[in-house]
Amino acid sequence: MNKYRVKAFGITKDLLGGRETFIETQGQTVADLRAALHSRFPELSGLRSLFIAVNNDYADDEILLKPSDEIALIPPVSGG
Amino acid sequence: MNKYRVKAFGITKDLLGGRETFIETQGQTVADLRAALHSRFPELSGLRSLFIAVNNDYADDEILLKPSDEIALIPPVSGG
Amino acid sequence: MIKITEKSIDVQKIIDTVSSLSAGAVNVFVGTVRNKANGKNVLWLEYEAYETMAVSQIRKIIEEASHRWPLLGWAVSHRIGTLKPGETSVVVAVSTPHRKDSFEACQFIIDSVKTMAPIWKKEVFEDGEEWVSARPEIEMRA
Amino acid sequence: MIKITEKSIDVQKIIDTVSSLSAGAVNVFVGTVRNKANGKNVLWLEYEAYETMAVSQIRKIIEEASHRWPLLGWAVSHRIGTLKPGETSVVVAVSTPHRKDSFEACQFIIDSVKTMAPIWKKEVFEDGEEWVSARPEIEMRA
User: Fold this and answer.
1) One digit per residue, pLDDT tens: chain D, 142 residues?
2) Which of B47, B56, B79 sits opposite D119 (nearest CB)?
3) What domains are defined for chain A?
4) CATH number given to D2-141
5) For chain D, first and last CA: distance in Å?
6) ipTM of the complex model
C-alpha cells in the first residue's frame, strides 16, 4: 500500500473533515489516488469538478506520485 | 456682412494669433465661415483636420450661424 | 508583484508599482464584494487560498501575458480571509506603452486568475453558507 | 463625475466615487505622460481644453455608454496645464455588476474621449515643441 498526505481546500476541506488527510492506495498514479478518495468520500462526486494538484501544479490522471509530493485537492475555484 | 466671434484652441490659437478672433463673412453658414477663415489664415489648410463647433457641439457645414452662437475652431484633438 | 494577503489592498500603491516613465497606459481591474448573490443578502465572504500554488499559477499567467503583450509593469493582489460587501477582493494592474494592450492584458490576467488560481470563496447569508460554484445545482439556481 | 482640472488626479478617490455595493467590478484606465515621443525626450506636456464643450462631449459619451452597458458608477477626470513625464493626464473609471462589461465600457469611454473631447496637448522637447497630431507630417514621422 502507498500512503499519501493530501491537502484539502474550500468545500473539500469540509467534505474530508480537515485541512489534511492521509489516503492509502494500491496504485501510484493520480487516477489511483482519485479512485481511493472517491471510494472513501463519496460526496466528492457531487462537485462540479475536482482537480488534483501535485507540487503546485494541476496534475493529469497518469502522473506517478512519490511519497514526498505535495498533493492537494482543487475543487472548483472561485477567486476574484 | 456678418461678424462672428470665433474661439481658437491648440494649434489654431497659434495660427490665428490669439484665443479669439472676429471673422466677417457674406454668408451665414458654417461653410461660409470656414471659407472666410481659410482665406484670411491660409495656414489652416495645413492641419490634418479642422472642425467647427457651435454651442459646444460639432457643427456640419450647412448649419446656419446666429451672432449669439458660441463658435470655436477644433483642430485635431489629442487628449488622453 | 504577486500578493495573497489578509490585509486590505491599497490600489494607489499598486498603480504606483506598475507605473513607468515609458508607459502611457495603466489598466486596473478592481473586484469588490457584492451585497447580493442569487438574490440573497450577503453578510460576508470567506476567501481561502492554496497560497504557494496560487502564487505559482499567477506567475505562469503573468509569463503568458508577457509573451502576448508588451507589459512594462504588472501586479496581482488577492485578498483572503473575511470580506464584507464593498471591500476589494482582488486588484490586477498592468502598464503598457499603448492603451489597447493595457485593456487586453489586464482582462486576460483577471480572467485567467479566476479560472486557474486555487482560491475559493464561501458566501455567508443570514440562513446559511455556500462555497461558490462548488456544486452543479448552484449553477442552475443562478 | 466629469472633471477637467489643473490639479493632480487622485485615483483612489475616483475609485471610491464609482464603487457601489451592487457592483462586483471596477475598471480603471490611467493615462500617464511618457518620457519619449517619436524617439525624442519629452521635457513636459501642455494640455489645453475647451472646457464647456469637453464636459458636454464627455457627458454624451457617458450617456451612450450607459445605453450599451449596465454602468453603476462612472468618472472621467482629465488634467490640463503643464504635466511632466510620469504624471497622470486622464483617469476613466466605471463600475458594473460583472467584469467583462467594466472592461468594455471603460475602453469605449477612453477611446471616445480621445477622439471626441476637445482637448489638446503640446509636446515640449529640448529643441522645440509640437501640437500632437495637428499636422499630417507628424503622423508619418511616428
Assistant:
1) 999 999 999 999 999 999 988 889 999 999 999 999 888 999 999 999 999 999 999 999 999 999 999 999 999 999 999 999 999 999 999 999 999 999 999 999 999 999 999 999 999 999 999 999 999 864 444 4
2) B79
3) 2-74 (3.10.20.30)
4) 3.90.1170.40
5) 34
6) 0.92
